[in-house]
C-alpha cells in the first residue's frame, strides 16, 4: 500500500522538541502548545519527538495515540498518517503504538512537568475555557514520576484516601490530598492542577489545596462543589497493583520471531530465546521481538519484501491475540540500521560502527576528557589496540574522582570481620577472598571518602556479603559521606587500578594459605611454576592476574610472565604493543623478584618453555573486539512491591527526575550507580544494593554481577562522573528543592 504524502508534515523534525497533531475528519490538525498533555478519550493523535543524541545526531520517535473511545476510522487514519510522517523523515524514526492509560514511559516523559490529562469526549466537544459554561470534572492523579490524571465520576465513590484528586469547578480548582498519598504524588498533583489552570483556563482560576492541615470549612466547600454533603465517608486506599508495564520481572521470557514471505503467504515462526544475538536478524526479512512486559518490537529488514513490510505490524497484532496479551500492549516498529537503545538492550552481542566509542555506553567528549590520563597517548597503540581501547573505555570512563594519589587502608574479610593488611603488600589480592578498602582524598579543601569492597571470583558468598555489610558500617561511621563501590575481580574501574600505580597482582587461592614472602607461597602454587597475565593500557592501570599455568591460558593480544623454579619467562604475544611489554617487564620484577628474566616472542618458544606449562597446545590468537550493545545512560526507579521486583524507567531523564524520596538506579553501561535520596526510607536504603543486583540479574545482555561495577552515592555527595551523565547539573538544585509543604505554603501562606 502506497501512503500519500502529508503536507502538514513538510519540514518537521529538524529541531529538538515535541509536535502533536489530532485526527479530525481523516486529516491531521496541529495542536496549540498549550493543549499539549490533554487528550480526549474519543480521539486519536500523532506525536513527533525530535531529540539530539549525545553524538550530535537527530533521533525521531513517532507515537500514534489511540483513545479508548476513538473510532476504528480514526485509529486507521492515525496509523496511516504515522507512516506518512515516517516517510517524510526518510524512514529513520521509530514508531510506537500507544493506547490510552497504557502509554510507554517514553511517551509519558514528554509531559512530566504537567502530567498527562485524560478528558472524556472527543474533538467535537472542543476545549473548555473559563468564559465557557462551567463544566465540572474530577481527575484522579496516578503515578510518582510519569503522571497521568484520569477523569472520574463526579462523586465521592470515585475517591479514596491513598490518592490525590483534582476538582475542576471553573474558576475554582481544588486539589484534595488523600491522607495516605505519597509525598511525590502530592507534588505531581499540584503540577497537574497548574497545567489545568494554565492550559485549559488560560491562566485564570484559583487553586486550593485540601489536606490534613486545612480547616473544616475548606473541606466542606470542596465537597459542596463536588455535590456531596459534608462530612463524608471516604474509602481507604485502594490495594491496586502497579501497572504491569512498569515491571521488569527476572523470569520473563524474551523471544525472537521471523516473519517471511513464501509463495505469496506471510509466515511467522519463533527462532530464538535470550540470549539473542545480532546475527539472528536477517536484512532480507522482518522479525518480531517479544520483550515480555515491555511489549513487542517489529524489526523491518532493509531487503524485506513489500508484503513482509506491510504485513509485519498486522502479524504483531495477531500475535497479541494468539498469546492473550492485553490489547493495549505496546508495539514498536524499528528499521534495519536505525535500532534505538531500547531494542538493542535485548541482544547480548551487537556490532556497532567502528567510529562509535564506548563499551555498553555512549560517552560525551567531556566524560572521556575527564577520565583519560593527559599523559597517555592513545595513538601510541597500533590500530587494533586503539579500537580495543576505545571499546574498553567503558571500564575506564565514568568514575575518576582524582588521580589515585590519596591515602588507602585495606582490610581482608576474615571470620566476618575486618583484618588489616600490612601496607607492604598493598596491591596483592587473593581471588578466593574479599576485601574492603578505604580511600581518602581532598577536594576543594574538604576530606572525601570512597569505600571499595573488592570481591574475588572465588570468594565465598558469606565473605562477599560480609564485605558489603562492613562497607555500610564503615560508611555510617564516616557520617554517611562515603561513596561505596562494589568491585569484582577482573572488572576493576580505572580509579581503583590507579591507586596501586601498576602494582596490582591477583593471586589464586585465599588467605588460608597465608602470605609471608613473594616466593614463600603454598596452596596457590604447588609445583614451583606460576603464570601471570598482564593487562592494562598505561603504567598506572596495569595489573597482573595469576592464571592456570597451561598453554590454553595464553592470548596473542597480551604479555605473560611465566615463573619456573629456575627462570622467569616473559612471553610476548604478537598482537601486544611495546607499551605493554614495558609494563610487563615492571610487573615481572614485582611478581618474580630476583629471578633471571628471559624474553620470548610468540612462535619462538624453546621446548623448556612449553614443558614448564604442561606442553604445547592451542590458545586464543586474539581477544577480539567487544560486541556489547551500545546504549545511552538510563535512569530507573527500582522497588520491591509485594515480593516482586519492579522497575520504572525515567525516559529523557534530567536531574529533576532524581526523586529525593527514592532510591534510583543510573545505568551507565559497565558501571551502575545507586543514588539514595535523603528522603528514602530506611528499608529502601538497606536494600539499595540488592535492588541494583536484581536489576543486573534481569538484564537481557551478557552483563552479570561478575562484570559490572556498582557505585552507591548519596544525595548531595555525587561524584563528578555521576553528574557528567546528566546534560545539565545544577549544584544548588537540591538545596533549592521545594518539598510539598514548601509548595503548599505558596498557595496558603
Folded structure, characterized:
There is one protein chain. The strands form five sheets. The protein has a ten-stranded mixed sheet with strand order 2-1-4-5-6-18-17-16-13-14, with helices on one face. Helix 5 (306-323) links the parallel strand 17 (296-300) and strand 18 (331-335). The chain contains 16 helices and 36 strands. The protein starts with 16 loop residues before the first strand and ends with a helix. The radius of gyration is 30 Å and the shape is globular. The chain has 749 residues and is α/β, with parallel strands linked by helices.
Strand count = 36
Order of neighbouring strands in the sheet with most strands = 2-1-4-5-6-18-17-16-13-14
Mean pLDDT: 83
Structural class: alpha/beta
How many strands, what sense, and barrel or not for the largest sheet? 10 strands, mixed
- Classify the beta-strand content into a percent band: 25-35%
What's the N-to-C terminus distance? 62 Å
Radius of gyration: 30 Å
Count of helix runs: 16
Q: Based on Cα principal axes, name the global outline.
A: globular
- Unreliable residue stretches: 124-134, 239-251, 354-359, 372-397, 513-524
Query: Helix amount, in percent?
Result: 10-25%
Determine the oligomeric state from the structure.
Answer: single chain
